[in-house]
Predict the structure.
Amino acid sequence: MSSQTAHTAPSAAAGHDEGHAHTHHTSTGLDNRKIAIWAFIGSECMLFASLIATYMIYKGRSLVGPFPHTEYVNEAGKVFKPILDIPVTSASTFVLLMSSLFMVLALQAVQLKGTMIPAGAGTWTRLQRSSQLWLGMTALFGAIFLGFQAYEFTSFVHEGLTIKTNLFGSSFFTLTGFHGAHVTVGVLWLMSLLWVDRTRGLGPQDELLVDIAALYWHFVDVVWIVIFTLVYLIQ
Amino acid sequence: MASIAAPTTASHASTEPENTGIWSWITTVDHKRIGTLYLWTALFFFIVGGFEATLIRTQLMRPNMGFVSAETYNQLFTMHGTTMVFLAVMPLSAAFFNFLIPLQIGARDVAFPRLNAFSYWVYLLGGIFITLPILFQVAPDAGWFGYAPLTTTRFSSGPNIDFWVLGLQILGISSLAAAFNFITTIINLRAPGMTLMRMPMFTWMSFVVQFLVILAFPPITIALFFLLMDRFFGTTFYAIAAGADPLLWQHLFWVFGHPEVYILILPAFGLVSEVLPTFSRKPLFGYNVMVYSGIMIGFLGFGVWAHHMFAVGMGAVADSIFSLMTMLIAIPTGVKIFNWIATMWSGEIRFTVSMKFAIALIAMFTIGGISGVMHSSPPADLQQTDTYFVVAHFHYVLFGGSIMGIFAGIYFYYPKMTGRHLNETQGNWHFWLNLIGMNLTFFPMHFSGLLGMSRRIYTYDAGQGFDMFNLLATYGTYLLVVATAVFVWNFIRSHTRGEIAGNDPWGAPTLEWSIPSPPPEYNFAKLPSVTSRYPLWDLNNPEMTSEIAHSAADAKVITDSHAVPMHIETETHTAKELGIPMPFPTAKPFVVAFSMVVMFCGLLFLRNDMFALSMTVTISGALVMVAGLYSWLTSPLE
Amino acid sequence: MAHDAEHAAAHAHPTGATYLKVAFILTFITAVEVWAYYIPSIVASPLFNPALIIMSAAKFVIVVMFYMHLKYDHKIFKFLFTGPLIIAAVTIIALLFLFNQLSL
């Protein structure tokens, strides 16, 4: 077991030891980047937890309105309706949820690329292999979600709620703003992947790259699930 | 057995990289060089922080001293704390994470070498960013914990706090990036056969610390972001007039702040756990328990934060819960103390300087732990909080604990890093002056604190019973200055004049001692496969580990064609000769770090109606950063 | 060797059909949540908030287990995610109690 002789002169076993740059020895058989992205997602849990906690701490404590779910009448007698728009936000929530489906299909498409298309395959079987389509759809739906957010933000400002107006405004815009910034980064990331797909093509060997983007994207979706419930639905 | 064996070969020549100029340092992605950069920079900031402390103590030497103004004093104590926590102790630990972890686990480098370099440059630039203001008398001045609403523009209208907020965000990015790197490294790059429960204790404690970093830094990032938004954009997070809660900042800060103190101490604990067994010539007592207690400390550390807030009026229920959790966390900590003592018990002790520092940590940390447990009782803490009693407590655990542990590590690992020993005589002077100076400085503070001397006051009137204690504390500080000077002299001089050290001058048990000192760029010519916790003792001194139960797991060697049985390497070659691909040196991490910090600098101008200038600087920084990042991500590592 | 481990980890794979089913379930739960929001008697009931939290937790778990593949991947990822998730959740709850937004 333990060797008493010291191997002092390693043979110039050229190349074999770490020659293949792609498959370094790992303790788990997993890619470093996949481990790193999950650690990053864990950290992001605490980031959004702090934002969400602050929103909930300040819930119902704004001294002036507009308010999320109740009416507000200011000193001048102006009436502000409850400012949150559930139908519109439900639509944007649905859009984001669907984008996660497309993301999953994009990853699957990349995985399927190396396999043979069975004879007589129908449209759906072919479509499943089109990573460009699904990456594009994911990015598109992400952009549509951002469009909804932009609409919401501008209409709120129009209706008298800015980030400075009250505790609700500060915590709401900061929380959803952070989330929106994450979505934006995701959309840009997906568009970069789409670009790579259109130029050199993404194949099964790129599965990890798409997987990492997918994990990030799903996490951003999952955070929105929590925000939608705690900010919009719970009163 | 002589503790310092003169080796027959100096292993410097063929390990020097081809370039040795400044550019080679800017483009390095080698974890050993990055560790060296961290060490030098952190020691520099340690001196800066110590200088700030010396000025503080001179001001407090006598009642109504008049040495500095109240405003200057506020800047001094704020920067002393900020510097010591973020620019000295954390980076000193990072120096060891960088240098040591890959060597201890039998890896060639960390998982993401370029990200590693990025972390260092962001730290250096962030450190400069937050330190420069004091030269212009606009240093942060609201304490290292920056309580809002004091730090809002209503009460702090100057740029001081802007530097603080932005500087800490920059430094946070450095720590977070490094943490993701080390988590991945430790999980994924261990040598074959090195199961988690065979890892050296320093690596284990560092592993726990990285999780603390990734979970504790987000809350402070958000707290700082809120403060930034309030200061720059008029939001209401800390605006009392808008109904904000004055405790929001405190809770968010301490949710970070408490895990932060475990981030500060656990690496030192890990270093002590390396030093003690080596100089007791005995395996660490209760390795499993030491690992589990480290994990418990990390986990429980998230449940005690409000013990920093016992005086704010949270109510009896909250006070009791946090009090109980705080008392609980003393248990795994105490367990470690006993395990260290048991390690030394019946051991063949060699009192090297490194060993002395390690033993001193056990004693000093215990004292700090006792005052800490006194704080855990809310009624008692109501008297102690915001007095010098607390200052005594945390300096015993931070100086007597973290700093002494780090010095133990420096004396222990200096030979491995440089190939030369630090001078033992000067080291002994350093140790004794440190031990006496530290106790002379901080022990009296227990008394002045309980007599009611408040923290963070720039002066005090005579006749309150504080005078003698303050005088003694200042004398102690001057002793520490001498001690540090001796150390710096030793540290610099030994680089060229120190006694040559071989692979394993101390007779230590872990992998890093099986390769030359300093290690060649590729670390291990052949990755060893590991069959126990003490691979080098198994090889050299099997009698020392014969009483350790070698379980079935030890026999389960993961076979891998990349690794060979455990061995010692004394020859050094270049990576090219051995056909080992090394990562390319690159300036991209530096460029991205620099442009990112430029972005933050741009934000500084936002509050002074210099919107156009601010946007120009920020956007140019952002563009260069994105371009640099794109270039980095699309170029191969090796 | 390392390669075998990798292939072993990527064993069970949901099919496209599973993913579509998951999408449908997510949509369905969201629809129920929104529907409940518009029924005043439900909103007034003390069960409304807990029910919403349970439903959104269900969506959360489904996305993480299936879309993020946590159910099928190496257990280290479960560990890397659930640890921080627990600490985050406990921290939020503790803060809500401390600021009197929740009470027993």
